[in-house]
Amino acid sequence: MKTETVDGSTLETWSADEVAKALEANEIVLIDVRTPQEYMFEHIPGALLMPMAFFDAAKLPTQDGKRIVFHCGSGARSEKVARNAISAGMDPIAHLDGGFGAWKAAGKAHMGTDMGTGAPKSVPAKS
């Protein structure tokens, strides 16, 4: 994990492996800040959706017992949202380095779309 101090608060940048391990252990709340269309096409199971366009830090859950980790497609939007959360007083806050693209590149399990039928399909982790 990489860390950066932003206005006296800690911004953490987590790898796909770190996020997967913490999500499996139920230690984090993973929040997807992509659009609803992106989320419906493919997403990380268990991730909550809070699109960046509608982001309101005041509506975030507390971090009592669980860290909040944001993710998007590439890491750019999630970093911006994480910085907004820090400005709203959340500390520490984290985001997924490389976003969903890094998650898939790391071979992590996710929900996708069957292009033949349009139905959701589980994409297993690659060994």
TrEMBL record:
Keywords: Transferase. One of its GO terms (molecular function) is thiosulfate-cyanide sulfurtransferase activity. InterPro entries: Rhodanese-like_dom, Rhodanese-like_dom_sf. PROSITE patterns: RHODANESE_3 (PS50206). Gene3D superfamilies: Rhodanese-like domain. Residues 24-112 form the Rhodanese domain. PANTHER family: THIOSULFATE SULFURTRANSFERASE RDL2, MITOCHONDRIAL-RELATED (PTHR44086), THIOSULFATE SULFURTRANSFERASE_RHODANESE-LIKE DOMAIN-CONTAINING PROTEIN 3 (PTHR44086:SF10). This is Rhodanese-related sulfurtransferase. It comes from Poseidonocella pacifica.
